[in-house]
Amino acid sequence: MQFDVEINNQPVSAKRGETIKNVLDRIGIHVPTLCYLSGFSPTGGCRMCVVEVDGFSELVPSCSHPVTEWMKIKTHSPRVLKARKVLVELLLAGHPDDCLYCERSGKCGLQDLAAELNVRERKYHGKRQNIQIDKACLSIVRDPAKCVLCGRCIRICDEIIGVSAIDIVGRGSESKIGTTYNKGLNTHTCVKCGQCIMVCPTGALTEKSNIQAVLDALNNPVLFPVIQFSPTVPASIGEDFNIKASKDILNLLRAALKKMGFRQVFDTSMTADLTIMEEAAEFIERFQKHENLPFLTSCCPSWVKYIESTRPQLLSNLSTTASPQQMMGRLIKNYIASSAGQKVENVFVVSVMPCTAKKHEADQDRMNDGITRNVDVVITTRELVSLIRLLGIDFNSLEPEPVDTHYSMRSAAGNLFGISGGHLEGLLRTVYQMMTGQEMSTLKINELRGLKGRKEAKIKIGKATLFVAAVSGLANVKSLVEDIEARRDNFSIIEVMACPNGCINGGGQKLNPDEKSIKSRMKALYDVDEEEMIRVAHKNPVIIDLYEKFLAKPGSDRNKELLHVVRTTREGSCVIHFTGNLCLP
Amino acid sequence: MASVTSNEIKEFLVEKILKNHSNIFDKATQEQLSLIKRTKVSRPVIFVGMGTCALIAGAEKTLKAAEKYLADHQIAGEVIRVGCLGLCSAEPLMDVQLPGKARISFHHATEDKVEDLLNSAFHRTLLQETILGQFKNEAQEEWSKITPIDQLPYFARQQRIILCNSGIISPYLINDYLAHGGYKSLYKTVLNYTSDKVCEIVDQSELRGRGGGGFPTGKKWLITLGTGSDKKYLICNAEESDPGAFMNRAIIEGDPHRVIEGIAIASYAIGANEAYIYIRSDYTQSLVILENAIKQAKEYGFLGNNIFGSGFNLTIYIRQGAGAFVCGEETALIASIEGRRGMPQAKPPYPAEKGLFGHPTIVNNIETLANIPAILENGPAWFKTIGTKESRGTKLFSIAGKSLNTGFIEIPMGVTISEIVNTIAGGVKDGKELKAVHIGGPSGVSVPKQNLDTAIGYETLQEIECFIGLGGLIILDEDTCMVNLTRYFMEFLQKESCGKCIPCREGTRRMLQILEEVTRRPKEESTHETLERFKGVVELENLAAVIRDTSLCGLGKNAPNPVISSLKWFRDEFEEHIFDRKCKAGVCHDLRTFIIDAESCNGCNICQKKCPENAIIGTIKLPHFIIASKCTGCGICFDSCKFNAIYFK
Amino acid sequence: MTKENLESIFSKYPGNKKDGLLPILQEIQDQQGYLTDELLAEVGKYLNLPSNKVYGVATFYDQFRFHSQGQYHIRICNGTACHLIGSSTYLAELEKQLKVKAGSTSKDRKFSIEISNCMGACDSAPVIQINDVFYTHVTDSDLDRCIRSIKEKTE
Ligand SMILES: Cc1cc2nc3c(=O)[nH]c(=O)nc-3n(C[C@H](O)[C@H](O)[C@H](O)COP(=O)(O)O)c2cc1C
Ligand code: SF4
Ligand code: SF4
Ligand code: SF4
Ligand code: SF4
Ligand code: SF4
Ligand code: SF4
Ligand code: SF4
Ligand code: SF4
Ligand code: FES
Ligand code: FES
Ligand code: FES
Ligand code: FES
Predict the structure, then answer these.
(1) Residue B527: enclosing H or E segment and its boundaries?
(2) Domains in chain A, start-ordered, CATH in brackets?
(3) Chain C CB contacts of A170 below 8 Å
(4) Which chain B residues touch A44 with a CB distance below 8 Å?
(5) Cα–Cα distance, B115 to A478 (Å, whole number)
(6) Same domain, yes or no, for B232 and B314?
(7) Residue A359 has pLDDT above 70, yes or no
(8) Does B320 contact C21 at a Cβ distance shorter than 8 Å?
(9) pLDDT band at residue A248 under the 50/70/90 scheme
């Protein structure tokens, strides 16, 4: 039902069921918000978005209050502005004055509010909160003193990731975001996905920074620093430098990394192809034996952590194939050692990932060869942007740099790993070929594309029909796991990515992405699929070469030792250390 | 009575009394009824008030002593636990009813006095000063020279509808309630009225919610009824989180079945088959009584399936609060029942449309619900004859603080505050002056003397910027420091803020900080700091406006009330604290100035040794002296002087 | 608390429904005296809630304790009526003499202090409860005596 309301003395038409904020957004009037999270039902908690409505004795939160007929609304009246300003001043009363040292400075919602509302003095003097920073987790750092208790992190963790690793602890002014018995984040159901960081308006949640470690490695003459990047990095990094994602950006990125001092640059897509080969073989074996189905992919460390700590009953369904990041680390070390004559322990592998959980994965080191780690340091896309800026590299005036190593050869399949459904699509292409000896006629599987949290498809492969699903946003696995356990649907393969829409929207990516940028990142990767010459993993020449020279048949016992990891339950602490001595020849 | 089985009594009460449409009975029925009601007894009956505060005053021991007395003297009588009459300051109360005589009530009947008191009753040699009064009873012989209870100043001005049985019947016996006409309204309602009709009757009675908001109850019910949802809930709010108020508890401890009947009628009216009672967990006594009452009502078929064959089903669950003031707020209460943190939710949607587990839910205060049986029994027109035009009916208050009498009362709306304080509560204790009356709990208002002639009622109180609130009324004498009291309320509210919204969570904290600065003495006093304190007070008003304007729930919206009202009515006390650094009432310890009286000081030197600030000078055996500028007012010297030579002002 | 006790509490709230959370925690605390990390986890498992959620809920409410009470558990009322008659000075005195802060238990587990918002006996203010015994109309010297006696008994 349509009706008119009056906003700042102008008639505006509105619909029943809309909130005041919906109407304001439509007509382009900005009100500040703090707790509001687009896509979630509003809580009306922070009161920053209040507006004045005729006939109401108090101010009304625009994010949660529905519009009704004949409302007369004032969005920026003196009374409203004063109220908002006081709210910010109150928040700042006990806030650490740390902007100069704060990771969020310049990208901080609280800072923006203070600027927007023209806060120019410390009006109230509260005691500075003295709360310990939680550094226990290998991926995420929590500094509760900077938290404004907007509750956004909790909602994401509850509703999108579904693990509820954090909640408000205590009541009133004593409340903080915390975990059971206020232990470190490492002891909990947290899967390190970093989605909470993405929505936190302040510096209360940040990734564990490895910038210094990277700089140290670059400046250490003994080391041979090399870097790998995830396919999502070129798909999104342009946003920070105002460059549209395209094929060129790949070469600009290489140029930037080279300029920073990395001796060689690798594209993780290549080992994504390798992952596909191993997984395909692993799946086919189980499929033929009717064992441990559905087959669950394991490239997302958050998902692996989730099963290992929360759903151990599914451990045997999980693929044992190592993630592309870890495989690449392993290969690079040996490759450099042999090709560039470096000692393995001097090769320093950095990876740039869209992901905070990959820090945890690398530190966990299940494929430890007893001498070095596979990946020495993981940085997020955000950290890479900071590094580029820190080192004064002008991204826009770089000369594109071509591929410098054949280990960067990729197929479009591996490249698709960044999108929910993409990994599965790539995997199916090779499964098809391995099962039938023929290529799929249409490589694109439409049902597995798009923004939905759970996508399903039926694929005919020879005589068999595979029922497959791709799930993203870890909370969506809940119903899936129920389906699996009740054996409702006879799934063959399920791909899971913890972050909504997959790694393109990972917890290490640019903050506050909107749907438009997610779609553009998706498009960038699907465009590669359209344009790339090699579109299936098994045709990637490096992969063929690797299997010929180095590895045994996909899925063979020997490869299992080299490219697969042990899956294990873990209660309590999330860190597990493996000290295998599985060395490549 | 001994020959009558409990089943026969039950059948008699249900068939002859409950199902009788009128209250006129034949002689035999009348006779049996008065036996059950104990208005006529065949052997002595001793009643002991067992409300929570009576228990704390030692009623359990009184009861034991009374039982022992009967055993020792081989008297075939019985001892009955009753609820509470409401005059807490007279507890423990023990009533005695002898065959043929009116029931009399002894005040302060502690264990040690029981023997004497009972002797005096049984020997008919009553001592005036031990007696509170006697209960009117036409059929029985009156005691001479004993005032009827309802003529005592404490009771004369009261009109007891909800409390009519409190202190008289046993809260443990459903038969007592039935004998007093209980459950008749429920019977009538479920068999004769449609849901719409019940809502209409309640709407016509113009009953307004007693939980503080004053929303018309009938209107609220109609909203829920109108949702057409097939799943609805009723919640009885007995959280009573206001510290210093206890009349809701008293309803349960006095007459639990009235509450159950009210809940049942309300559930029928809105179409709910499940109801919750949310009660404060500290009320252990009430909890036992309620659980027992629900069990009995189920046994009698007044709860459960197909009540009175009407097809109406109702289950009542009890949920205990867990110690959070804010859970009195309806949406927080719902969150708490659902097993979540008790944080209020933005309204709309209102619980009447979308409440417990997402279904339409009516949250009513327990006092509101306790009014329902009487309204259904006597009709809306009757209800409207009580109270004032805008505020119909009666209101319960609990009276605490510095008055002579304390306890809980039920008065018709329209009685003035001054009547409550001076007549009912008997004025201020110990001959002190009255300073103010605090109404409405921690977020209420202290009404100054000049406004005491205001009548109790929603609109009338609003004219003096006051609210009825839940019904807590605290009498403040001249020794009260209004600044300290304001700080105390703010401290309470800031501790109880749920923390969801910024204005309440952070704003109350800053207000408290400012008030603390006013009542605390810094090490060094400079004009600058005086100015800062003064600015702080101006800031209080500023903050109050924003907190009121932007808070999510009633806790935050009303949190500035005590500050605003105290600043308005007792500004001089604030200024005295700020500029003169004095607390006349001597409550703000930090602001005391200590002085040694040279006359009484014998120079023992103890105080000098103990003073942590080295603020005392003097030579042994000569009067000592306190250097005011060094003294921080800690009071150590005051405590240590054995010769009472140190005083403060 | 044994597994059977826990099971029997759970069995009163069948169906793993979340609204059983508060009553379950209340019953556990009644039996055990306080809530432990392991018990919270068990409750979480039963109700399908992460233990963080259970902890978040439990810490919201004043009723729940996460450490055991002292041999002498002192509840002091700081409701309005009791405050007016000076309960806060009594509280300060208790804290000083027994060397334990309100809301906690002394290291030797002898004393613990809890503040009540109102014990429902405002008439008899100020009210202090030590274990099961109520002390009403408490005066300075009453308090002194109480403190001395419980201190002596725990020597
Ligand atoms: C902070 C706060 C505390 C409240 N405490 C109580 C309470 O203890 N008891 C109560 O009945 N209502 C309380 N209320 C009011 C309830 O939210 C609700 O309005 C009331 O129970 C509705 O019942 P009524 O319509 O019968 O008055 C409180 C409200 C607020 C904002
Ligand atoms: S969180 Fe924001 S406001 Fe706070 S210190 Fe960091 S940048 Fe500054
Ligand atoms: S913005 Fe202000 S604080 Fe920051 S560097 Fe410039 S002058 Fe210094
Ligand atoms: S990293 Fe992910 S799982 Fe961990 S707290 Fe944040 S949102 Fe929750
Ligand atoms: S940690 Fe960040 S997102 Fe979470 S409540 Fe605090 S400020 Fe909000
Ligand atoms: S979906 Fe991708 S970015 Fe997100 S946690 Fe998994 S691997 Fe990391
Ligand atoms: S006003 Fe206070 S109690 Fe109410 S929601 Fe806001 S913070 Fe919570
Ligand atoms: S009150 Fe304290 S500081 Fe002042 S003189 Fe006495 S002992 Fe010294
Ligand atoms: S303790 Fe009393 S008597 Fe002794 S010196 Fe001090 S003031 Fe005088
Ligand atoms: S943004 Fe509307 S209340 Fe927080
Ligand atoms: S500790 Fe955080 S990754 Fe394990
Ligand atoms: S007289 Fe019984 S509760 Fe006060
Ligand atoms: S205020 Fe202390 S018992 Fe009520």
Answers:
(1) helix B527-550
(2) 2-76 (3.10.20.740), 90-207 (3.30.70.20), 212-577 (3.40.950.10)
(3) 59-60
(4) 345-346, 501, 552
(5) 70
(6) yes
(7) yes
(8) no
(9) confident
pLDDT at B536 exceeding the cut of 90: no
> Residue A86: is its pLDDT beyond 90?
yes
Give the number of other Cβ atoms within 10 Å of residue A143's Cβ.
21
* Cα–ligand 6 centroid distance for A365 (angstroms): 17
**Gap from A185 CA to chain B (nearest CA, Å):** 21
Inform me whether the pLDDT recorded for A142 exceeds 90.
yes
Give the residue-averaged pLDDT of B2-24.
85
A193 CA distance to ligand 2 centroid (A)?
A: 23
CB interface of C with B, residues 62-121, below 8 Å:
62-64, 78-81, 83-84, 88-89, 116-121
Q: In this structure, which amino acid lies at residue B447?
A: V
Cα separation, A77 vs B576, in Å, equals 37
Q: Would the CB atoms of B323 and C62 count as touching at under 8 Å?
A: yes
3-state secondary structure of A13: strand
pLDDT at A573: 53
Residue B580 CA: distances (Å) to CA of A123, B3, B383, B584, B634: 26, 77, 53, 10, 18
Three-class DSSP category at B502: helix
For B420-470, write each residue's pLDDT tens digit: 999 999 999 999 999 999 999 999 999 999 999 999 999 999 999 999 999
pLDDT band of A585, cuts 50, 70, 90: very low
Write down how long chain A is. 585
Domains assigned to chain C = 3-60 (1.10.10.1590), 72-154 (3.40.30.10)
pTM (2 d.p.): 0.93
Please give, rounded to a whole number of angstroms, the shortest distance from the CA of A110 to a CA of chain B: 13
User: Mean of the per-residue pLDDT values for chain A?
Assistant: 91
Residue B381 class from Cβ within 10 Å (0-12 exposed, 13-18 middle, 19+ buried)? exposed
Looking at the CA of residue A139, tell me the nearest atom of ligand 4: 1
Q: Could you tell me if the CB of B594 is within 6 A of ligand 8?
A: yes
**Residue A187 — pLDDT band, cuts 50, 70, 90?**
confident
Can you tell me the distance from the alpha carbon of A496 to that of A185, in angstroms, rounded to the nearest whole number? Answer: 23
Residue of A nearest to B345 (CA): A43
What's the 3-state SS for B37-52? HCCCCCCCEEEEECCH
Does the C-beta of A190 come closer than 6 Å to ligand 6? no
Judging contacts by C-beta atoms under 8 Å, the chain B residues touching residue A20 are: none
Ligand closest to Cα of A47 equals 10
Q: How far apart are CA A525 and CA B311, in angstroms?
A: 64
- The answer to whether position B17 is within a domain reads no
- For A268-278, what is each residue's pLDDT tens digit? 999 999 999 99
Q: Tell me, yes or no, if C16 comes closer than 8 A to chain B by beta carbon.
A: no
| B485 with C84: Cβ contact below 8 A | yes
Nearest CA, atom 4, ligand 4: A190
Q: Cβ(B39)–Cβ(B137) under 8 Å? A: yes
CB contact under 8 A, C84 and B476: yes
Range of the domain at B634: 592-648
